[in-house]
Write a structure and sequence with these properties.
- By secondary structure, the protein is mainly beta.
- It has three domains: about 35-135, Immunoglobulin-like, CATH 2.60.40.10; about 140-240, Immunoglobulin-like (Sandwich), CATH 2.60.40; about 250-470, Immunoglobulin-like (Sandwich), CATH 2.60.40.
- The chain contains two helices and 35 strands.
- About 30% of the residues are buried.
């Protein structure tokens, strides 16, 4: 051990002396400071979207130059940055820098050019040029252009650069571009180089050519868009319209048909026709439901409270839902496919199925159809529940024993990733546990759960880190 320590110390000392020797051997220059012989921007005024022309001359009579650092700043934002290698005792550099028209650009702003000249000894000279003023382009009006029509957005708030149009009759999804000039056919004039055309670029409004992406506004909770407002300072656009009225009736026979494949816990895949529709459902709204022969056995009980032979109250939060009806089971499922935590949780695993008689397990650690997963209802902030048939079977002699068990996990979205770890939760009772050596983070059935199939309400509280697993049928 002593020999290792001695060797280490000797090595460090050798490195130190080598570094010192290199420092002594390199050329040392007198202490001096770089100078700006000239530094100018040719333009006094520009419009956003133009360029500025920079000309710089630097020198240091005693010490060679190293680097010229350039930053172009508007409204405290760096819009261009460059590091230029300079050699010898003098150097000149010219360059053009584009000053873009983007969000938050004020009218009459100074275009600042920050310059730093550094010599090989590290001495630095700074200067800032302020001689250019940038103005916003004059846009008295702007056109919203769809594939079939053009609507004028008028300047309604000059100080804040707000444009709007009302009294519109669009549907609840609209795709368009914005342009400052149209041709005589009321189409975008792509031949005019001064025409400013906006599309959707990197998740915001941006300038495009004729191949650029369209802007799309979509809100399925609206009857349609009757007003469009453009904020050309913040580069945002929004639509407004009359809200849909939650549905008071559901007729599954009017649903469209879609073919879905479902793989069960025994790895058997069934391809069959489902009925499906998009519906705007309201919390605590009573609905008349037709096409389902027995509501008490045909509606997912965590989302519907049956109130009569043909009526039920919807329990979920108000919103647009995908509603599925599987004729073979005479059963209705609901989900919001794009809902994510904290608006919803999803349950996926093996050992459960719909709360409908005849009861059968249908889940399989897959996301292909509602038979394989469960969309959980948000009961209150941080509290979610899933009602389903659950069955846990322990059979060590089976070819794949895990396929017969109950094992599930809550996910933050419809798909893998973003999950709740069961090991961080208080177990609800002796029916479930969280293994530490396998199936990490899953809620897994215990020996006490074996032989106790039934309809269970599985509740998870992510705030208190508690769960409830109660047999209700």
């Amino acid at each position: 051990m002593k020999n290792i320590l001695k060797t280490t110390i000797i090595g460090l000392v050798a490195l130190f002396f080598a570094a010192c020797q290199q420092e002594e051997l390199r050329v040392h220059y007198p202490e001096s400071m770089p100078m700006f012989d000239n530094a100018t921007v040719a333009e006094n005024t520009i419009v956003y979207g133009d360029s500025i022309s920079l000309s710089v001359g630097v020198s240091d009579p005693l010490t060679p130059l190293s680097t010229l650092e350039i930053n172009v700043v508007v409204n405290d934002e760096i819009i261009a940055s460059e590091s230029v290698r300079t050699k010898g005792n003098s150097a000149t550099y010219t360059q053009k820098y584009w000053v873009p028209f983007i969000a938050h650009m004020p009218d009459g702003a100074e275009v600042e050019v920050h310059l730093s000249s550094i010599n090989v000894e590290g001495s630095k000279k700074d200067t800032v040029l302020f001689n250019t003023i940038a103005s916003r382009p004059a846009i008295p009006t702007i056109w919203l252009v769809t594939a079939t029509t053009a609507v004028e957005l008028k300047l309604t708030d000059t100080a804040n650069h707000i444009y709007s149009a009302s009294g519109l009759t669009f549907g609840n999804e609209i795709s368009f571009r914005l342009a400052t000039k149209l041709n005589r056919f009321k189409k975008i004039d792509w031949t005019d180089p001064t025409n400013l055309v906006f599309g959707w670029v990197n998740n915001t409004l941006g300038f495009i050519d004729s191949n650029g992406p369209w802007i799309t506004l979509s809100d399925p909770t609206l009857v349609g868009f009757n007003k469009i407002t453009l904020d050309l300072f913040n580069f945002t656009i929004r639509g407004e319209g009359e809200k849909l009225t939650p549905a008071t009736s559901m007729n599954v026979s009017t649903f469209g048909t879609v073919e879905l494949s479902s793989t069960d816990n025994m790895n058997v895949t069934t391809k069959e026709n489902w009925k499906t529709a998009q519906m705007y459902l309201g919390k605590n709204t009573e609905m008349t439901i037709t096409g389902v022969s027995n509501l008490s056995n045909g509606l997912t009980p965590d989302f519907f409270e049956v109130s009569g032979a043909t009526t039920a109250k919807f329990l979920g939060e108000t919103g647009v839902y995908t509603v599925y009806y599987l004729p073979r089971l005479n059963y209705v499922f609901v989900e919001q496919p794009n809902a994510v935590y904290p608006d919803a949780l999803w349950l996926c695993g093996v050992g459960f199925g719909p709360a409908a008689s005849p009861y059968k397990k249908t889940s399989s650690w897959n996301w292909n159809s509602p038979l394989e997963y469960k969309f959980c209802r948000k009961v209150s902030p941080g509290v979610y529940e899933a009602v389903m048939y659950a069955e846990h079977v322990i059979d060590a002699a089976a070819a794949e024993p895990w396929r017969l068990t109950f094992s599930a996990k809550f996910f933050h979205q419809r798909g893998w990733g973003g999950e709740e770890d069961a090991r961080t939760y208080t177990m609800p009772n002796t029916l479930l546990f969280a293994p530490t050596t396998a199936d990490l983070g899953n809620f897994v059935g215990t020996a006490d759960f074996n032989g106790q199939p039934g309809v269970y309400r599985f509740t998870i509280n992510v705030n208190a880190k508690t769960t409830s697993f109660v047999k209700i049928n």
